[in-house]
Specification:
- The chain is globular and about 65 Å long.
- Helix 10 packs across helix 13, helix 11 runs parallel beside helix 12 and helix 11 crosses helix 17.
- The protein is an alpha/beta fold.
- The protein is about 40% helix and about 20% strand.
- It folds into 2 domains: about 270 residues, 3-Layer(aba) Sandwich (Rossmann fold), CATH 3.40.50.2000; about 200 residues, Rossmann fold (3-Layer(aba) Sandwich), CATH 3.40.50.
- The chain binds adenosine-5'-diphosphate (ADP).
- Adenosine-5'-diphosphate binds next to helix 1 and helix 13.
Length: about 500
């Protein structure tokens, strides 16, 4: 099959979160299964400066955006170590910016225009490049208009006639909602601006448009696929999703073990390790991290870590509260790497200033440090309010770092809570808790730290975690089956 991936992130070109990891890895897995995947990205400054060879093609695409005609140039590259072709839509005015979507806590004001152009440019590129495409796989709101274009403006003409589209929702909270007059930018008929199709509480919604017009929908774990059918995790889209329930599938994300294995990790230098020698390997990485972050070199003090976007979703309010309480009383070290909401930057920096022997915080995006932390930490924290899939807990399992997670979304599907029963039957891999409260997080952490001081239990948890296989193979096969079914069935009629 020929699959077109429409995504705004793909490692190693550009990434702000899990979307980038998935769209960097899944196309390669699909290619291994014999399919041809072509990835289309906006030519963000971050992508162009990623150090990967990118060539101009001399092929231009044009699209009407409101009253304007906008032109873009297609650049060509490949996902490293693969044959997967990547085209980047180059339009400096839209994409040559310091960040992808927002700066200093504010979305770029012309995001609607930027991603309307992206959606149209990708569709135009299919014709310009004479690209064989059997299905268009759209990711998140930034590609949300494409299924609507395919079913409306482009439906009567070759090469788009009869094309099917799929939409993967990586995080339902990011919806791409814009004021209604932006509808004029899209060139789509106002008749689609109604509550059953593109309108979402008076706004134009890219994500809702995708949910309504795509021929199949997926999200990134079976539990999240169920959770989003009702409030609050449906984030207002639960009605639209219930309507499409028969076409909504939960496929868990995999891990790119080429990137994320302690045995081959390029960021670990001499301290690489595997299941046979993890004790020495992790101890060495812990020393290195403590030294690097100016924490006291204490091998037997549990090191608790969190890496990620500093957003409400990730439970940083709970982390900050428990950290403050523990930093005064409990022999544990805390490491946080992340960027995001200014309120968390402030709270975490002030804790690091107050407790320099117990708390180290790095407010930056660092691929290298995120790998070192996965290897060095004893416990990895993910007390998320909601978590579509979550990747860090999967990385943690492979690195022998025990996850402490809230029982939501993909965290339910991937971490087995340590209880008497799961320890006895050898399935326990971490600790989970239900209530979204700092008390529940503190209790789970307390269980984890007690287990840490109980060597037999701790090594059992680490070794069971390291044995887990969350590689992409199985999930990629599920995507293939879904592509096949969707193509066989053909375009689904949209309810007016
Ligand atoms: P989400 O997509 O919701 O942000 P995931 O757990 O699915 O969460 O994926 C997050 C990815 O982004 C992981 O690969 C994580 O290591 C990475 N990441 C997030 N913040 C940072 C950071 N500050 N530095 C390095 N990597 C980060």
């Amino acid at each position: 099959m020929n699959i077109l991936f429409a995504t705004s992130e793909a490692t190693p070109f550009c990434k702000t979160g899990g979307l980038g990891d998935v769209c960097g890895a899944l196309p390669r897995e699909l290619a291994k299964l014999g399919h041809r995947v072509t990835v289309f990205l906006p030519a963000f400054r971050q992508a162009r400066q990623a150090g990967i060879p990118i060539e101009p093609t001399g092929v231009y695409v044009e699209a009407p955006i409101g009253q304007k005609h906008v032109r873009g140039h297609l650049l060509h590259s490949r996902l490293p170590n693969s044959d997967v072709e990547v085209f980047l839509v180059d339009q400096d005015h839209y994409y040559d910016r310091p960040h992808l979507y927002r700066e200093e806590g504010e979305d770029y004001r012309d995001n609607c225009e930027r991603f309307t152009f992206y959606c149209r440019a990708v569709l135009e590129a299919i014709a310009k490049l004479a690209l064989p495409v059997d299905a268009v796989h759209c990711h998140d709101w930034t590609a949300g208009l494409m299924p609507a274009y395919i079913k409306t403006l482009y439906s009567a003409h070759k090469p788009w006639r009869g094309l099917v589209s799929l939409l993967t929702i990586h995080n339902l909270a990011y919806q791409g909602n814009f004021w209604h007059w932006d509808m004029a930018l899209t060139g789509l008929d106002w008749k689609y601006f109604n509550w059953r199709q593109m309108e979402f509480y008076g706004n134009l919604s890219f994500l809702k448009t995708g949910i309504v017009f795509a021929d199949a929908l997926t999200t990134v774990s079976p539990t999240y696929a169920r959770e989003i059918l009702s409030a609050p995790l449906g984030a207002g889209m639960e009605g639209a999703l219930q309507h499409r329930q028969a076409d909504l599938h939960g496929i868990i994300n995999g891990v790119d073990y080429q990137e994320w294995s302690p045995a081959s990790d390029r960021f670990l230098g001499d301290h690489r390790y595997d299941r046979q020698n993890y004790a020495e390997g992790k101890a060495a990485c812990k020393r290195r991290l403590q030294q690097r972050l100016h924490l006291p070199q204490r091998p037997d003090t549990p090191l608790l870590a969190a890496v990620g976007r500093l957003a409400d979703q990730k439970g940083y309010d709970l982390i900050v509260r428990v950290m403050r309480h523990w930093a005064e009383r409990v022999d544990a070290q805390w490491v946080v790497l992340g960027t995001g909401e200014p309120k968390y930057h402030e709270a975490l920096s002030s804790l690091a200033g107050e407790f320099p022997d117990r708390v180290a915080v790095r407010l930056e995006f660092s691929e290298e440090l995120s790998h070192l932390i996965e290897a060095a930490a004893d416990v990895f924290l993910m007390p998320s309010q909601y978590e579509p899939c979550g990747l860090n807990q999967l990385y943690s399992l492979r690195y022998g770092t025990v996850p402490v997670v809230r029982a939501t979304g993909g965290l339910v599907d991937t971490v087995v809570n340590a209880t008497e029963a799961t320890l006895a039957n050898g399935t326990a891999t971490g600790f989970s808790f239900d209530d979204y409260t700092s008390l529940a997080l503190a209790e789970a952490l307390d269980r984890a730290v007690r287990a840490y001081h109980h060597q037999a239990v701790w090594s059992q948890l680490i070794e069971t975690g390291m044995r887990q296989d969350w590689s992409w193979g199985h999930s990629a096969e599920q995507y293939v089956r879904l592509y096949e079914r969707t193509i066989r069935r053909g375009p689904v009629e949209v309810q007016a």
